[in-house]
Every structure is written in structure tokens, then in C-alpha cells.
Amino acid sequence: DQMTAIYNNNSSDGLSEDHIGKCLKIKIINSCPDIDNNIRDLEEREVCAVCLDAMCQENNNTGILECKHDYHSDCIRKWLRLKNFCPMCKSVAFN
Length: 95
Fold this sequence. Notes:
Layout (H helix, E strand, L loop, with lengths): L1 H7 L8 H7 L1 E3 L11 H6 L17 E3 L5 E3 H10 L13
Antiparallel strand pairs: 1-2, 2-3
GO molecular function: ubiquitin protein ligase activity; zinc ion binding
Protein name: RING-type E3 ubiquitin transferase
Keywords: Metal-binding, Transferase, Ubl conjugation pathway, Zinc, Zinc-finger
């Protein structure tokens, strides 16, 4: 099936740290907006699809792939060393 093909194709091979460093766009997060801790806000918070923690964490940089999905920089670096595709949309992360 299509999902098996995605996981088994050449794009699933991991990338070197050097290649990741050259291609990954980094957005520096210095501070986060104050968010009320009510149910609605908790449901609306953006999370990193790799670790499932809140994206907005002070001093935690964001790594942005070519498909425009973003993750914690450290999380997506670890992912890309194993698989060269976006965890969310499965498009090739970097050529």
C-alpha cells in the first residue's frame, strides 16, 4: 500500500548531521505569549508532533522543514537522522 511505500522508499534513509545543519531553517524562540490555563487554550496549543510537548517553550528553537511544518529543533534533528521525511505530511524533508 501507499504508506508502506512511503516508509520503504529511499527518502526514509536518515540524513547526516552536516546535511541537516545546512538545510534545516531555525526559528529562535526567546519568549512565549502568556496563555490562560483553561481547557480551550490547552486544546488550541500547538504541539511538536515528534515529542508531543507544547511548541512554545522558552529557549527552545523551532526547526522548519521545506513543507513548512515546524517542530522543536532538537526533536526534528533526531527524527531526520533516522528518516528523511516530515512526520506529519510524509513529504521528503530535504533533497
